[in-house]
Amino acid sequence: MARLSVNINKIATLRNSRGGNNPDVLQAALACERFGAQGITVHPRPDERHIRYQDVYDLKANIQTELNIEGNSEEEKFVRLVLDSQPAQVTLVPDAAGQITSNHGWDTIKHQAYLQDICALFKGEGIRVSIFLDADPRMVEAAARTGTDRVELYTESYAQEYHHDRERAIAPYIAAAEVAQQAGLGLNAGHDLDLHNLRYFSQHIPGLLEVSIGHALIADALYLGLEETIKRYLALATI
Ligand SMILES: CC(=O)[C@@H](O)[C@H](O)COP(=O)(O)O
Ligand SMILES: NCC(=O)COP(=O)(O)O
């Protein structure tokens, strides 16, 4: 039974396209909560092309549910933002500056020492840490040695393969989730989850605590409205 954290990056993309404050990112986040979302996710990027750093402070001061901030902790500015705004959770994502969207998880073997240090820093401030990972049991095993609380499985390959062969698509995710459970790590997932592939994922992944969903959910809201869309995603995530 996973909780749904709505990623509102795309609301900010729309706002920024005209330079004003329409749509209002904070108002959208509060509406998501009112319609049942159990968390709000943002992924401020160094160029602030969608979520701006100021949005993060405004969200933290006003939302009632968990704030999850995603980003690359190798950027000094990101670390300062997280420490200053004190979200419930930080998700460490190894994206290069200017990348269009996330396309891989951390290599927790190669970067073990760095990840241990950064997890200790955030956890020392009472912030829950999750590390974004490809669905590879070796990466989960090594993540367990960093001190992280959770891992987030990067679901793009699941989403792409789902329509061809869903059993094959989900197999590495089940294997990774089992290793996470054995290691005592909490499990999150996200990227390209949608109304078609979410039910099967929630049904088959043991111990799934949270899904963060943005792109497809915000697109669906154009047709269905935000309230109905969130209701549908909640029904699939909390199976
Ligand atoms: C970490 C992750 O999975 C991404 O999906 C990300 O949060 C989305 O970022 P963009 O909205 O910038 O594509
Ligand atoms: N962590 C994944 C996320 O926040 C949203 O990804 P997407 O649904 O926008 O692909």
UniProtKB/TrEMBL annotation:
Reactions catalysed: 3-amino-2-oxopropyl phosphate + 1-deoxy-D-xylulose 5-phosphate = pyridoxine 5'-phosphate + phosphate + 2 H2O + H(+)
Keyword Glycoprotein attributed: no
EC number annotated for this UniProt entry: 2.6.99.2
Similarity comment: Belongs to the PNP synthase family.
Catalytic residues (positions): 43 (proton acceptor), 70 (proton acceptor), 191 (proton donor)
One GO term of the biological process aspect: pyridoxine biosynthetic process
Quaternary structure (record): Homooctamer; tetramer of dimers.
Protein name: Pyridoxine 5'-phosphate synthase
Residues binding 1-deoxy-D-xylulose 5-phosphate, per UniProt: 45, 50, 101
Keywords carried by this UniProt record: Cytoplasm, Pyridoxine biosynthesis, Transferase
PANTHER family hit by this protein: PYRIDOXINE 5'-PHOSPHATE SYNTHASE (PTHR30456)
Entry's Gene Ontology molecular function annotations: pyridoxine 5'-phosphate synthase activity
Main location: cytoplasm
Residues annotated as binding 3-amino-2-oxopropyl phosphate: 7, 18, 192, 214-215
Pathway in which the depicted protein is active: Cofactor biosynthesis; pyridoxine 5'-phosphate biosynthesis; pyridoxine 5'-phosphate from D-erythrose 4-phosphate: step 5/5
Site positions for Transition state stabilizer: 152
Organism domain of life: Bacteria
Keyword Nucleotide-binding in annotation: no
HAMAP family for the chain: PdxJ (MF_00279)
Classification via NCBIfam families: pdxJ (TIGR00559), PRK05265.1-3 (NF003625), PRK05265.1-4 (NF003626)
CDD domains the UniProt entry points to: PNPsynthase
Entry function: Catalyzes the complicated ring closure reaction between the two acyclic compounds 1-deoxy-D-xylulose-5-phosphate (DXP) and 3-amino-2-oxopropyl phosphate (1-amino-acetone-3-phosphate or AAP) to form pyridoxine 5'-phosphate (PNP) and inorganic phosphate.
Subcellular localization(s) per the UniProt record: Cytoplasm
Pfam families from the UniProt entry: PdxJ
InterPro entries: Aldolase_TIM, PyrdxlP_synth_PdxJ, Pyridoxine-5'_phos_synth
